[in-house]
Amino acid sequence: MERSSTLLKAARIIQEQREEIATMETINNGKPIFEARMDVDTSWQCLQYYAGLAGSIAGQHTQLPGGSFAYTRREPLGVCVGIGAWNYPFQIACWKSAPALACGNAMVFKPSPCTPISAVMLSEIYSQAGVPRGLFSVVQGGAATGQFLCQHPSVAKVSFTGSVSTGIKIMEMASHGVKPVTLELGGKSPLLVFSDCVLENAVKGALMANFLSQGEVCSNGTRVFVQRDILHAFTKEVVTQTQKIKIGDPLLNDTRMGALINHPHLKRVLSFVAQAKEQGAEVLCGGEAYVPDDPKLSSGFYMSPCVLGNCEDSMTCVKEEIFGPVMSILPFDTEEEALGRANSTCFGLAGGVFTRDLQRAHRVVAGLQAGTCFINNYNVTPVELPFGGYKMSGFGRENGRAAIAYYSQLKTVYVEMGNVESVF
Ligand code: NAD
Description:
Number of strands: 16
Structural class: alpha/beta
Low-confidence stretches: none
Strand order of the largest sheet: 10-11-12-9-8-13-14
Bound molecules: nicotinamide-adenine-dinucleotide
Shape: globular
Helix content: 25-40%
Order of helices and strands: HHHEEEHEHEHEHEEHEHHEEHEHEHEEHE
């Protein structure tokens, strides 16, 4: 209950500082302020959620023959390391630290060097809320610092959010100390749009699945499979709505797309578009560096959101995670075909389906090889629900009750109520 009340205090301070944190996050990351505010909200909600669970973390009692019994204790792991990506800096720090602290661990958190600021704000908030000194620490740095933390003998667990290639290295390093890891990695998630869907909702869903945070979202449904008989109507409306997205100063309330994280990343995303064209895809809109009218934004890393038509499963833009505002549209004919193609990837973070057919919706999500699935919506991630990947998108879960298992260990205690019956 003490942990719970401290987490609740921290959640309240985050709510009070919502605008300050969101502004800092936007300046640091480039995402529009309306989204940064949503990130701050899912952050304090996460603290509230684990504050609610903290007092319920418990073991079980089992009665055994002869009056003897056993019980289990759910114990903390010790010092957990959190390593974050740059796309949701504050939210990632909260999604890792809240369950870690609720379970009685300490956390050393390393934010991405691209977005170092908001994790420090979180550590100040935890201190103000009464979290004992040293229980949540922030260490700044890049790969070398991350490696140091993963290899440190006093570290009991590593929870990592980032790319697959770094995730593999983390797992390798942690394996030397036989340390448990949680890996939240990349994706190339499918969104299946059937002709019996509510078209307007499916279009909205496709935009939500691709263009939040400049497309720099791990769970994005970037492979949009569309049943052939609605391909034309769907594509036309998606392009119309995509062209309406307001790009510009991320600190303005009505901006819907801000700047990408940095120049090398912008170049990389644009090169995916160029390669898609070379491989035969058609750019239906966007896909270019964008210079806003405001002169103070002229050196920003903006690009226009891109919809690619004429795509094929073998194209690089369809196979690889782009991590930018680039949607690939892929026609399909049958449910079986769409499902097979959707699963034909090494990733498995998320997936979605738009249909009015209840049975089809559940059949399709049951068949999708992905950790989080959406029926008739996309990219909605309430903290009450576990989030994490299948296949090379990682393992372990954040959020929901499930995360408790990943920040604690189980001790079994046998209690003898009789005399020892020795075989010797
Ligand atoms: P990244 O893998 O380059 O870096 C992530 C973090 O790891 C950073 O803090 C970085 O400094 C650190 N790091 C880099 N090399 C390291 C090493 N050798 N040892 C230890 N730490 C190291 O990823 P990124 O570019 O920051 O983020 C984008 C990626 O993150 C995308 O692939 C995206 O899909 C993924 N992501 C996944 C989730 C999820 O929940 N599944 C959420 C957000 C982002």
